[in-house]
Fold these 3 entries.
Entry 1:
Amino acid sequence: MTELPNGFTGMPRSQRNAFAPRSRIGTSAQQSYASSLPDYAFNAQQHLTFPAALGSYARGADVYPTPAFSEHELAQLTDVKRRHAWIEIDLSALRNNVREVRKRVNSNVHILAVVKADAYGHGAVEVAREALKAGASFLAVATVEEGIQLRDAHISAPILMLSQPPVTAIELLLAYHIIPSVYEVPFALAYGECADAHGVEAPYHLAVNSGMNRIGVRYDEVGAFLMQVNFHRALKLEGIFTHFATADEPEVFDFEIQVRRFEEALAHVFQMGIDPGIVHAANSAAALRFPKVHYHMVRWGIGMYGHAPFPQAYEYANLKPVMSVHARITAVKTVPMSEGVSYGFNYRSPGSVKICTIPFGYADGLVRALSGKIDFLLNGKRVAQVGNICMDQCMFEVNMRSFATRMRLEPQVGDEVVIIGTQGEGAIALHEHTKILDTIPYELLIGFSKRAYRIFT
């Protein structure tokens, strides 16, 4: 048998660089490796022939007889039965998190549940309903379409849009009773005119820029803004708010500047004899850390989904993660020593391992940059993800060596694997991924695509 080059101890070492990373293999080494391979008599290109016609395969499904399945039977095959990958949303944990903030604000302070971006990837309609049951009284969205989705689901609670939409969306705001944030005079007047033409009021919340410099009327220009719009009989100021940029930071200097500026703007509104309506400023971090800015309402966002808005948040509230991510093993294989796994062969089998595949990849939200850096749970034990994460699938290894200190795992097709969440005594927290990627939980939560079916428990 022709000797194949390799770089593994205890095996023939005639060409040490043959399995080295590509960046370390020069052209001459590659040519040397190629010349060392045996010549094979079979030439696939010479033997392949193409059919004269593709027949029915080229004409699509219309040519095939339809099996006698009832529509009811097919409808029972829900998404989780069509693909072994899903996301579980623990509604009891969600209710717990709403109650946690409820305990930390006065009884007359409203809770606004932030359900924008499909409730941070958790499912806006289901989350909105549970949050309202648990004590929230307002909902917040980022787009007109998100508000319409809630109304189409027969949710009647007040909906605040946390930005100002295009003028062309004004009729939708009025038709679906979505309250916009307003900070431009032309929009405010157009909004009022449209409402007046239809014989209704145009409620809005005034966004104040107290220093974050994203949206809003600058804090020292609020009076001038109101003088230009307050005359309109249809416009109705129902609230005034700002957003803190550093409420989650240990240093509070910039936070205190924003508080002072917002309260200066608020004082000016009162001096003008205008009722500001519902005053709100606290995001999740400020809702837990700074009771003085609770005002009339707090906006409960990332905390509602069980993730810490600042590192010490779990000392303030018993937050429970709402989302967990699951899949089932679709393939188990023994890969010989030195053979690669996945694109690029960045991982090679050390032997004595089984490589397991699950149908979850970066199209589902498992970021490719995590490749080879994270663990999953199998039977409550951590197993290392290996190889590059693919679009639709990824792999992990199970060490088949026996150790006196632990039981050897025996992976089987169909076994459940936890990507994020708990299983037995094991736990994989989302912050493990955020730490590796140097990002925030918001980004990863909304990144889990709808292709992964949501199960609400």
Entry 2:
Amino acid sequence: MMFLGGVAIGGLVCGILSDKYGRKKTLMASVFFQTLLGVIIAFAPWFQMYFILRAALGFISVSVVFSGFVLSIELVGGNWRTVAGISYLFPVSLSYITIAGMGWLLRDWRQLQLAISLPGLIFLILWWVLPESPRWLLAMGRTNEVMTILQKAANYNGRELPVNIDKQLLPNENDTETESVNVMDLFKTRQMRKKTLLLFVIWFSVYLVYYGLVLNLGNIGGDLYINSILSGAVEIPAVALSILILLKGGRRWPLALTMMLSGVACGCAMPIGLVRDDLQWLITTLAMMSRFSISSSNAIMPVFTAELYPTIIRNIGVGASNVSAGIALMLVPYLWNLADMHQSIPMSILAGCGIVGGACVLFLPETGSKPLKDTIREEECEASEIKRMNNNS
């Protein structure tokens, strides 16, 4: 619970830090502290200390996830934005399989904690490999640093930069926007408020269904380690399929349909245990179908969210959405306790969240074929254009 509470708060704080100090600095600092805290936890002598450190680890870990994700989609453009954003989630699927095997071999939790924490030291090498996000630097008005990164990329790829690109990167007098931003900017315009509130519901729904299945595999029935491996295995093709779906079908409809399908699968699994006791294989199959579908939703959702916000506030937007996701995470451990009231309640809640969350997606605009916006002013101009078109119609 403390870890999940840290995740809920950390997503928002890391978003603010990342938008202020940069993606790279936030990411690498988070990787360092995540590794350090993980090692310290393995040697924690008191439960109270373990309790506090787990909260701190959750706070830092979500910063690694979101800072790295936003950096990955801002380093590329066009269709590669989709490929980079979705591929970023492949290691998550592999980690479920790996940790299930490690947990089976290392039955001592301290050894397991060390085994999953120490490899983080390797990733500190990325400080000398990863560039800062050119989009973020450009939004901050740091054009010279953008030119340096582009020149290195051109040299590496054996390409020549376009003539006068340095002048093309210079902001227009009316477009300079380097003022500080904060969470309240997510509610600055009517369209921004609409996007933000809908995303809160969507993130809550996806995380409740996703982790309601992932963290309660033992309650579904069958062997916990086998279920964990199956859970990771079905996510790999789901993430891969998401790339093809997004390249061909955009973001909006694929996210809505995968969320709804996940809810329907949970709804179909709900009555089986009430009617028959010898159909555990069918319940597990439907749970894995729901897991497959919601895994695709979980891959699409961050990309869609990041594209809905301008660069200058993108990490804050993703982090703020994670607050509602964090609330869902804190509720997940208690979800299956509701089965004491009635066996069908947990799956009913997951089914309802999947369907309602999917419906909310349909109220958001498509982003797949549109270029990323960089400033809040661009967002305001789009909102004004939408309002003008609505008035004319």
Entry 3:
Amino acid sequence: MTEAIRQRYAIVDKSTQDSSQSATLEMPKKLHTFEQSEVQLADGTDPPTTTQDDDTSEVPPFSYPEGGLKAYSVVLASCIGMMCDYGFLNSIGAIESYVAQFILVNNSQLGISWVFSIFCFIAFAGNIFSGFVFDRYGARILFIIGSILIVGGLFGTANSSTLWQFVLSFSICCGFGCTLITPPCVSCVGHYFDKKRGLAMGLAISGASIGGVIWPLVCRSLYTKIGFTWTIRVLAFMFMALMAIACVLVDDRRVEIRQHEEQVKREKEKDTATTTTVHSITEGESESSFTFSHVLTYLTSIVDFSLLKDVSYDFLVVALSMNEFSLIVAFTYTPSYALDKGFGQSVSLLSLTIMNAAGIPGRYIPTYLSDKVGYFNMACVTSLCMTVSIFIIWVPFGQNLAAFMVFAVFYGISVAGTLGLIPLCTSAISKPQDYGKAYGTAYFFASFGNLVCLPIGMAITSTKGGFQAMTAFCGSISALCTLFFVLARIKLAGFKRAKI
């Protein structure tokens, strides 16, 4: 419903509505839909019938397959992509600890931390560009180019021996490869599922935890047998095979979405010109007419204006930024923390594996439940569990091996659940044709925290508090994440008991 109609109509509460109905809200993407019986003109007469997003009655809503071979093939492709993308991100601690201990021994710990912080920054900041490419050109081209960059970067990393070589091969090359793969992995699933989106996204995102289990185990097994160089090469060959499969299976429905949007616009009697977005292909324009000016126009609009006007989206972006800040420090330095406590190289890598293994059910169960209780409600719960596990287990008892492993399990479950819910929360408050844009924008802002989180974490370990102070710092940032998830939920539905 447009702003003009909102101002013309007065919203009147239905006094006869029972309490169960008044306490129920639809999903966030339907928050701005008003029922006909709830709206009256100022003079008491009924307004003309309208539908969600100003769609006219002549145009049916966009339909989702909700299953089938094609849809689940896309889920499998996204799962494989997540194994080589987020699974790789979740495993960089296995590389960081070995590089710091055996390869870059003449460099400071702070200098080494920049290798991995630059990698994280590029991997997330580039989502704003790859999200734009996905919305316009689809998933497959991004998968192909991203696969080439990741595999090539790993081969370069295998042969690196100096700090600048690791920055070029690992930070830049692998970072750009990951940033191209991420938006298609999380956005193309939303093109095929609506009611079952939480379940489908949980299956796809679980690839991140599967990869986080496999890659540290590969490193743990091969470091002592064939050395660092050939261990990284083995990873590169495995990535090559997996991403080849993903490139064949991945697909999207951007053309159908655009056609539906154009059909809706043609049926509208007013507001046609004002609802045209940068992504839309207007009559007479084709994808081949793309120019550099389109990129500039897109970047200007996406960063400063459209999405950031929604306060609930702003709260979500801040929550995401705090979440990424905390978990990247925790996942990257968990092996180093274990070494500092005297647990040994094998145990340090095993703890990272356990943390990622716990994330497999952690990514599936919360996303499945979120279809029933609401995406934002569940995100608040999982984020709170992250904070509690840090302050109740890791900070006071982390020096005990058994407690440390218990923390790895609980933290892995809660982190995975939160990560799996973020794409669902983003898609719930954005339009289907803007999934890639909304997700890419959120991670663009989060990436600036990722750039400095590892150097800050390493700097804290250099203080008198050491790694113990770093764990408390992670917990504090995680608590801020929980706070902003709650604020986003309150902004959308207030304090009502609602599915949101």
